[in-house]
Write a structure and sequence with these properties.
The complex is a heterodimer. Chain A is mostly helical. Chain A contains 27 helices and five strands. Helix content of chain A is about 60%, strand content about 5%. In chain A, strand 4 and strand 5 form a beta hairpin. By secondary structure, chain B is α/β, with parallel strands linked by helices. Chain B has helices spanning about 50, 60-65, 95-100, 120-130, 140-145, 185-195, 200-220, 230-240, 260-285, 355-365, 370-375; strands spanning about 35-45, 55, 80-85, 85-90, 105-110, 155-160, 175, 245-250, 290-295, 315-320, 330, 350-355. Chain B is globular, with a radius of gyration of 21 Å. The chains are: A mainly alpha, B alpha/beta. Chain A: InterPro entries: DUF1800. Chain B: InterPro entries: DUF1501, TAT_signal.
Chain lengths: ~475, ~400
């Protein structure tokens, strides 16, 4: 059936990460069911371990920080401390790099391409970036612990898990933000940092045009004080020390390494976007965040972002409205929103419009060639050159998402260079078959002919990878 | 001593005083190798102007900044004197040398026409040149090329992605270090056959390969990613010769200093200084016809925050450097940091619309006419006159 085989090619390339050999033929039986079946309450697939869990990673991170603290002191061992600190830093960086490779391998092999794309979308919508070393140390855990398990559940649960994760608290400077009237704030000259509060409103939930003011940002920042991570000192607070001091320093542990520090929390009720919150402790910030997550502006903004990511840089308003309706009716059930995206007729227009991001381009190449990436270094270099270094989104807004962002003159030269290298090293024997397998009905007659007439396998494969229908989805 | 005090001279009725921004080298026609060049450096993340052009003579500066305050000129690690009560951050030694040669000026309190504290929205407005968000989908530097007649000026962005400021109807190029396939390779022409129905891919690939060839011809060397000075020289090579770029956009990231600001700014400003120094070296005899402008989307809070950093603010600094600049000092007025002068009680109050400076550069340096600037390059901006003082 022609319609179904076209839909299969659309499903696997537009909603997934590109086709592996034989995949389009398998999906053709029911392309929509292929995607719908990936909506599972347990969330998106997890990369294969073994990984450090957040407890182990936090211990390594605190060791690293503890070393940092000692640097100023014991000068006799300054060199040894410096060496240990560098080793600890390298170990954390290596863990993150390895985790990135594992994620790319999952992308290159999974049969659940839609769930993987959906998870990557949410990780980007709620960006944490490794451009800061401290947040980079937790970024892979962030995706595995906060994002992947929650992408088909309620958005409110996803966003709470994301904002409370150590990666986010470190990335947006929340961990040390101190209420001026808190016990610690009145003793020392420390204060608020409103970075997380602002991005929570602007980028993670309602958006900048939702009508909030600077006063709302500051109030939210006050409510969030106390959201923090463990410190080396917490471990050193041995039993037997002054009880009052221990009580003051006590922290309430939460999921994934989150701790609440009453000691730095700004006391009192807070008013954000016209509502007053009288809760005490960590519950106050969470209550505000849950209201922001359920705000109509959040549904509207993120529905548009989903449509723009999966379907078109300028998505049809009908599609945006469909997603928004599904969001509102289901009270932000992301599984229902995903279902609406899959069932929307606008999702299945045959003409590919979106330019793949560098990551999508590279992963889809690995899928087409049926060879998962083996080493992090070449993968990292390719992504750096194409403008999307691993885990290192340039800002809290996340990676950009339009053709103009990814297909500029220099970026295309870098894609061509990489494609030729990939083509030179690939062992694919039958490039014509690889083209049919990768693109199905989306393979144009022009590209098919160019591949058939190429003077070498390298040339044929380079043409396939750089063809408009492989660059777009 | 020209220690012009930061007093009420600056406040009201200063529409003309101190607004002289004029350029030495205006030419009626841009010809051959002596064409005017403009490099726009966008400091993304909100550069803390109060740490770049330091108002050390303002009595409120040190009390507001506390541990983030930089020392006055003459003190250990002190600012580099710019006269008029301002000093330059000590990491900007190269820029300061240019200042001493009359090739560097600054505005101390500029801002966009709208008051917002979102990086992304503010960068969009800075780059598209409108008065409100999403007013335009293209950038003012690209529209300047169109307004100048399209083919006369060549645009170039540095980095794998074309920033909004250079997006639009005029075709522009982009370049970043690296590269391997050459334009004359067979694969390049085969791909053009594949791209007949996809003009965006076809045009962009052709332009990218052409730029790559230009760099290779100039040096035969590649530029290491972290070598900012070499990057400056490579960009300079792309600006020289008959096909050289005239309008260039470079982005420098990492200015969002919410915590640990001192060390971060030291690194960022050192990079900025090296970039400009590399441009100057590389441009050589083109430098006298060049102006570099460093702009950011907004400034940062006047007070230090609780984590040795600063949060999103309003007014910030703008830097100009280049041999094409007419000597002079401060552009615009200093609002002071007095409590009752702070915007919303927390930010440096802007005294100058940043578009005025851009318009001054495009008119007096690049030779665009006022009507095009008021209506097309910066739509509906007639009320904001280009900052100028006539030609030398």
């Amino acid at each position: 059936m022609a319609a179904s085989s076209t839909d299969a090619a659309i499903a696997v390339t537009r909603l997934g990460l590109g086709a592996r050999p034989g995949e389009i033929a398998r999906v053709a039986a029911d392309p929509r069911a292929w995607a719908l079946d990936q909506i599972r309450p347990e969330g998106a697939p997890q990369p294969a371990g073994p990984f450090a869990d957040s407890g182990q990673r936090m211990a390594a991170f605190l060791d690293y920080q503890g070393d940092r603290g000692q640097r100023a002191g014991a000068s006799a061992d300054a060199e040894a401390v410096r060496t240990a600190r560098q080793a600890a830093r390298r170990a954390l960086t290596d863990d993150t790099a390895q985790a990135f490779l594992t994620r790319a391998r999952l992308g290159a092999t999974t049969a659940d391409g839609f769930a993987e794309r959906w998870a990557l979308f949410w990780a980007n919508a709620l960006t944490v970036s490794a451009v800061k070393f401290d947040s980079g140390a937790f970024i892979d855990l962030y995706e595995r612990e906060a994002v992947r398990p929650n992408v088909f559940g309620r958005f409110a649960d996803l966003v709470v898990a994301a904002e409370q994760h150590p990666a986010m608290l470190l990335y947006l400077d929340q961990a040390r933000s101190t209420g001026p009237d808190s016990p610690a704030g009145t003793r020392r000259k420390v204060g608020l940092n409103e970075n997380l509060a602002r991005e929570m409103l602007e980028l993670h939930t309602v958006g900048a045009d939702a009508g909030y003011t600077q006063a709302d940002v500051t109030e939210l920042a006050r409510a969030l004080t106390g959201w923090s991570i463990p410190r080396p000192q917490d471990r050193q607070a041995a039993p037997g020390r002054d009880r009052a001091r221990r009580a003051a320093l006590a922290v309430e542990p939460g999921p994934n390494g989150f701790v609440f520090r009453a000691n730095i929390h700004e006391p009192g009720p807070r008013t954000v976007m016209g509502r007053t919150y009288v809760q005490r402790g960590a519950a106050q910030g969470e209550a505000i965040l849950r209201d922001l997550a359920r705000h109509p502006a959040t549904a509207r903004r993120l529905s548009r972002r989903i449509a723009a990511h999966f379907v078109s840089d300028t998505p049809p308003e009908t599609l945006v409205a469909r997603l928004e309706r599904a969001w509102t009716r289901s009270d932000g059930d992301l599984g229902q929103v995903a279902r609406a995206l899959i069932e929307a007729p606008e999702t299945w227009t045959p003409q590919p419009t979106k330019i793949k991001t560098p990551y999508e381009f590279i992963v889809s190449t690995h899928r087409a060639l049926d060879v998962p990436p083996q080493r992090i270094q070449p993968l990292r270099q390719a992504l750096v050159e194409m403008g999307q270094p691993p885990f290192a989104a340039p800002s809290p807004e996340g990676w950009p998402d339009t053709a103009a962002d990814w297909a500029g003159p220099d970026a295309l030269v870098k894609r061509l260079n990489w494609a030729r290298t990939a083509a030179e090293t690939a062992r694919t024997a039958d490039i014509a078959a690889a083209a049919r397998d990768a693109l199905g009905d989306r393979l144009s007659e022009r590209t098919r002919l160019a591949v058939a007439r190429a003077e070498s396998r390298t040339e044929a494969l380079t043409l396939l990878l750089m063809s408009p229908e492989f660059q777009r989805r | 001593m020209t220690r012009l005090t930061l007093d009420r001279r600056t406040l009201l009725g200063a529409a003309t005083a101190g607004m002289g921004l004029a350029f030495a080298g205006r030419v009626a026609a841009q010809t051959g190798s002596s064409r005017a060049k403009l490099v726009v450096v966008i400091a993304r993340g909100a550069m803390d102007g109060l740490s770049v052009t330091i108002p050390y003579a303002d009595p409120d500066y040190v009390p507001l900044r506390g541990g983030l305050a930089l020392a006055a000129p003459g003190e250990p690690n002190g600012a580099l004197d710019l006269a008029e009560g301002f000093g330059l951050h000590p990491a900007l030694a190269g820029l300061h040398q240019l200042h001493e040669q009359g090739q560097m000026r600054f505005a101390a309190a500029v801002a966009l026409p709208v008051r917002i504290r979102s990086h992304f929205e503010a960068q969009d407005i800075l780059e598209n040149g409108g008065e409100a968000l999403r007013q335009r989908e293209d950038g003012w530097l690209n529209r300047a090329i169109v307004a100048a007649g399209g083919a006369r000026l060549q645009g170039l962005s540095i980095g794998a992605q074309t920033p909004l400021i250079l997006r639009g109807d005029a075709p522009v190029s982009s370049w970043a270090p690296g590269g391997r396939v050459r334009g004359e390779d067979r694969i390049a022409s085969l791909l053009q056959d594949l791209y007949v129905d996809d003009p965006m891919l076809g045009q962009n690939l052709a332009r990218g390969l052409a730029t790559e060839a230009l760099v290779a011809d100039g040096s035969g060397q590649t530029v290491r990613r972290n070598d900012v000075e070499a990057l400056g020289r490579a960009v300079a090579r792309l600006m020289t010769g008959a096909e050289g770029a005239d309008l260039v956009a470079v982005s420098l990231d990492g200015w969002d200093t919410h915590a640990g600001q001192r060390a971060q700014l030291q690194t960022r400003l050192t990079g900025l200084d090296q970039l400009i120094s590399g441009l100057k070296d590389g441009l050589a005899d083109q430098w006298p016809r060049t102006i570099v402008v460093v702009a950011t989307e907004f400034g940062r809070t006047a007070r230090a925050n609780g984590t040795q950093g600063t949060d999103h603010g309003t007014g910030s600094s703008l830097l100009l450097a280049g041999g094409g600049l007419k000597p002079g000092g401060l552009i615009g007025d200093w609002p002071t940091l007095a409590d009752n002068r702070l915007f919303e009680g927390r930010d440096l109050t802007p005294t100058l619309d940043i578009r005025s400076v851009f318009k001054g550069l495009l008119r007096d340096h690049m030779g665009l006419d006022r009507a095009a600037l008021d209506t097309r390059v910066f739509p509906d901006s007639a009320a904001e006159a280009p900052t100028l003082g006539g030609l030398a």
